[in-house]
Amino acid sequence: QVQLVESGGGLVQAGGSLRLSCAASGRTFSDYAVGWFRQAPGKEREFVAAIGWRNGGRYLDDSVKDRFTISTDNAKNMVNLEMKNLKPEDTAVYYCAAGPHIAGTVDMYDYWGQGTQVTVSS
């Protein structure tokens, strides 16, 4: 079992930056790929970014690839999502998830955190 906890959300003005972190307990991330998803009110949960812990392979959605960066912090067993040039349409609850492979769909991930709210004001 893996327990995931997100942190770092908040309120920011358009053009600003935030860093989200996903911490794991129970097991290390070394056996997993870690993804970030987001869900805005009334919308489906959508893929944002993912990283393979062992090989460091990265995959970002086209809507964020020029603004967001995903990375691992091996010492802290955490995955970070650096978000720059935030836009109001980035407003959502952001979730981290762990699964066996880098993937862009919700059903490929086995473990989920509770989410952290990101609000971008115009």
Q: How does this model look, in words?
A:
There is one protein chain. Strands 2, 4, 5, 6, 9, 10 and 11 form a seven-stranded mixed sheet that branches. Strands 1-3-8-7 form a four-stranded antiparallel sheet, with no helix packed on it. The chain is mainly beta. It is globular and about 40 Å long. The model has no long low-confidence stretch (mean pLDDT 94). The protein contains no helices and eleven strands.
Element layout with pairings:
Elements (H helix, E strand, L loop, with lengths): L2 E5 L2 E4 L4 E8 L7 E7 L6 E7 L5 E3 L7 E6 L4 E6 L8 E8 L11 E2 L3 E6 L1
Summarize the structure.
The chain is mainly β and 122 residues long.
Describe this protein with a few key phrases.
122 residues; mainly beta; seven-stranded mixed β-sheet; four-stranded antiparallel β-sheet; 11 strands; 0% helix
